[in-house]
Amino acid sequence: SQTIHQWPATLVQPVGSPLSLECTVEGTSNPNLYWYRQAAGRGLQLLFYSVGIGQISSEVPQNLSASRPQDRQFILSSKKLLLSDSGFYLCAWSEGHRLDGYTFGSGTRLTVV
Amino acid sequence: GQQLNQSPQSMFIQEGEDVSMNCTSSSIFNTWLWYKQDPGEGPVLLIALYKAGELTSNGRLTAQFGITRKDSFLNISASIPSDVGIYFCAGGNTGNQFYFGTGTSLTVIP
């Protein structure tokens, strides 16, 4: 069966420090991968999505970047965090053309201080 | 990106009451999904709808795919404390990404 792993679960980082959040999927190949941010426990904002290795689409211009170095690995990064980067970050995957929807990871709570 | 409108934004209900929420879009979708997010966790898929007019149940939950294909509805019967969380709708079309609703926060008072 397919599983999605996201880490770390919580993170407290000072303003101006770098960020690296990692997401991996097991049990499938060539998944579509997504990074979402959720502020204050509300709506889901799509940040990036990827349909293949090295292919990244950005939905919102911001202080963050994403990379997909391997088929089932998706990384969210920042060179210098801002206070406004605080939030709950969710990784998700889906199988290409299927419309079963997305399977989400357990999320990373990021607090920038 | 497109975001779907969910209402109500939040609900405070007594245990045992029924709950209704809806989701509307300016675009037509051929798939509607409903997710539930427990506090501090990622959303989990509850119900998937693939056909206009379709009515699908999952235990005490019932969801409907609107006839216009621009809306969907979720009902929860006889609410219990563990129903607490944020409920999200999502709409999508074949080959394209899903768009999520703004969420409905549900609080159940024992």
Task: Describe the structure using short key phrases.
heterodimer; A: 113 residues; mainly beta; four-stranded antiparallel beta sheet; 11 strands; globular; B: 110 residues; six-stranded mixed beta sheet; five-stranded antiparallel beta sheet; 0% helix; 53% strand
What does it look like?
The complex is a heterodimer of chains A (113) and B (110). The mean pLDDT of chain A is 91. In chain A, a hairpin with a 5-residue loop joins strand 4 and strand 5 (44-52). Chain A contains no helices and 11 strands. Chain A has strands at 3-7, 10-13, 19-26, 32-38, 44-52, 55-58, 65-70, 73-78, 87-94, 103-104, 108-112. The N and C termini of chain A lie far apart (38 Å). In chain A, the strands form 2 sheets. In chain A, strands 2, 4, 5, 6, 9, 10 and 11 form a 7-stranded mixed beta sheet that branches. By secondary structure, chain A is mainly β. With 110 residues, chain B is mainly β. Helix content of chain B is 0%, strand content 53%. In chain B, the strands form 2 sheets. In chain B, strands 2, 4, 5, 9, 10 and 11 form a 6-stranded mixed beta sheet that branches. Chain B has strands at residues 5-7, 10-14, 19-24, 31-37, 44-49, 55-58, 61-65, 71-76, 85-92, 99-100, 104-109. The radius of gyration of chain B is 13 Å and the shape is globular. Chain B contains no helices and 11 strands. Chains A and B meet through strand 5, strand 9 and strand 10 of A and strand 4, strand 5 and strand 9 of B.
